[in-house]
Design brief:
heterodimer; A: 113 residues; mainly alpha; two-stranded antiparallel sheet; B: 460 residues; alpha+beta; three-stranded antiparallel sheet; 10 helices; 13 strands; elongated
Chain lengths: 113, 460
């Protein structure tokens, strides 16, 4: 039994808020946990969307669903920004992990810092 | 949420991340700094805005860097550093003194004592023999010089403690003033990171004060530290008191703490390196006293017996040894007149005795084995051996105390490092965990966006 798209979207929004909070506070453990929940919801959403596809001819997407989609998209924009900052700063701290290598032409290809 | 709000939220994330970089960089940079305590980032959620009955998140704010330190361990560590330093310097100083009490070689006072009495025994074979008489004087001089050398070494060791204290006291006073200055800076600081750095530097100075002088510290709720010695406060808040050192009439060092009403003698309260040096000073004074008693008893008994005999001219014997009361060992020597004329050795038992009479020599030789010392329970060899044994016992005790203090200090240092030390592996592991977690979340967000786009596409 596949749940309603709106229900899944509301749960996803709640989890996305937890992700934002975890990303802000550099809490890697909480971020990993909430992302795990999000992955389960994503599978469920995919099933719901596929089911929705089959019924696409039934009419336009309800307004409340559309509103939830925009809400989630806005949260994800914030989350991506935070994650982008986090990844950039961590990479700066760690430096490059790629070793220098030789190309087929025999030239040394230096890793980018 | 407006675009501006989103930017503000993202900016708060940037502040958190950049503070995270600062804290981690600070930890990594100071990983090898002695006394540094690890920092961890403290983050609080920003108060949300309310719009149309909905709460809109405003991100997070870094509120400071928490200093990882265990106050109980820190305080015990201060005490342990002082104890270890005290026992180590006590042991090292006594080891130096012990080297002067070399009784294994032929030049040690114990051997020289035996050789002196042996020369007297050889003189009994022919008391009129000038060369044998000269040998007695020669061996007597060697014996007294051997005792003088030990006494001089002890005196040098004792005086070096005063001289070292005199040279160091102004440095100690400077450090007390620095602790007071840091206390003022810490209580006035509005930045947790800045106050933490002041605390680390101040605690390092306190550790040095504990290490050198045995100062103890109490850390107050406002971050300031009270430094004291033997119950007397040396630093309270932003105020400090100065130390002074002087040499007493007995030639020992005395340290005074200046107070508002005068000064108080804190010599017996001093711990740390100088506490050990002062412990050694007490031991050295005791060794000097034992050696002086030995010389006084031996020389007095020998002179008395020597006065009962007669020299080669038939005159009563004069003093054989001389010394000055109060510094018997340091001034122990042969009588100058006797040393210049071996015929003055009163070997004969009577004024009219023949040239070969050595009756008084037998009595003089008997002094070596007569129980004149330790309340009539020890002879000369045993008494000198007892002085040596007391040095050996003191060295062994000091070594044992130093070993015990070292083990305690090692244990507490390990505890401190566990609570406060920067573990580079841990810092690297934290970074890896953040990176893995952030990248995984970013991938999921991208997939979600694709899914939502697909959902929106259905209805277009």
């Amino acid at each position: 039994m596949v749940r309603d798209v709106n229900e899944i979207l509301r749960d996803t929004i709640a989890i996305a808020e937890e992700q934002v909070e975890a990303a802000r506070s550099l809490d890697a453990a909480a971020l990993t946990e909430s992302t795990g929940f999000r992955e389960h919801l994503l599978v469920e959403l995919e099933q719901a969307v596929n089911e929705r596809k089959e019924l696409a001819g039934a009419g336009p997407l309800p307004l409340d669903t559309e509103e939830l989609v925009f809400q989630l998209a806005e949260l994800d924009t914030r989350l991506e920004t935070l994650l982008g900052i986090g990844i950039t700063t961590i990479e700066k701290l760690r430096g490059t992990s790629d070793p220098d290598t030789y190309t087929f032409e025999g030239r040394l290809k230096r890793s980018t810092p | 949420m407006s675009l501006i709000s989103s930017l503000n939220t993202a900016a708060s994330g940037l502040r958190v991340a950049s503070q995270g970089i600062n804290v981690t960089s600070h930890n990594v940079t100071n990983a090898t700094t002695e006394g540094y305590s690890r920092r961890s980032l403290r983050v609080e959620t920003a108060l949300p805005s309310t719009k149309g009955g909905f709460g809109i998140g405003n991100g997070a704010n870094p509120t400071g860097a928490k200093r990882s330190a265990d106050l109980f361990v820190n305080r015990r560590l201060v005490d342990a550093i002082g104890d270890e330093s005290r026992t180590a310097s006590h042991y090292q100083t006594l080891r130096t003194v012990e080297a002067s009490f070399d009784d294994v070689s032929a030049d040690g006072p114990g051997s020289l004592l035996s050789q002196f009495f042996d020369s007297l025994s050889r003189l009994t074979q022919d008391p009129s023999d000038g060369s044998l008489r000269e040998e007695v004087l020669s061996q007597g001089t060697r014996f007294t010089e051997g005792i003088q050398k030990v006494a001089a070494d002890l005196q040098t060791g004792r005086l070096s403690i005063y001289e070292e204290l005199e040279q160091t006291i102004s440095e100690i006073n400077n450090r007390l003033a620095q602790v007071a200055d840091f206390n003022a800076a810490i209580t006035a600081s509005t930045s947790e990171m800045g106050a933490g750095d002041f605390m680390d530097k101040r605690d390092q100075i306190i550790h040095e004060l504990a290490d050198e002088f045995g100062f103890t510290a109490v850390f107050n709720g406002d971050g300031s530290a009270q430094v004291s010695i033997g119950g007397h406060a040396a630093v309270t808040g932003a105020e400090h008191r100065e130390l002074e050192v002087q040499q007493t009439a007995a030639g020992v060092a005395q340290v005074d703490l200046q107070t508002g009403t005068g000064s108080v003698d804190i010599t017996s309260e001093i711990g740390g390196y100088f506490g050990g040096r002062l412990d050694a000073q007490t031991d050295i004074v005791s060794f000097e006293s034992d050696l002086n008693d030995f010389v006084d008893t031996l020389a007095t008994a020998f002179n008395t017996q020597h006065a009962a005999g007669f020299d080669q001219a038939g005159a009563p014997g004069g003093d054989f040894f001389t010394f000055t009361a109060g510094s018997e060992a340091a001034t122990f020597s042969l009588d100058a007149t006797l040393a210049a004329d071996s015929s003055l050795i009163a070997a004969a038992g009577a004024a009219t005795a023949s040239a070969g009479d050595g009756a008084n020599l037998e009595s003089l030789i008997g002094i070596e084995s007569t129980n004149l010392y330790a309340g009539g329970t020890q002879d000369a060899t045993q008494a000198l051996g007892a002085v040596y044994a007391s040095v050996g016992r003191a060295v062994a005790t000091a070594e044992m105390e130093n070993n015990t203090a070292s083990v305690t200090l090692d244990d507490l240092s390990a505890l401190r490092d566990a609570a406060s030390g920067v573990d580079l592996d841990q810092e690297a592991a934290d970074l890896l965990a953040w990176q893995a977690s952030y990248q995984a979340s970013a991938r999921v967000v991208t997939t979600t966006n694709q899914m939502l786009a697909e959902l929106m596409e259905i209805v277009r």
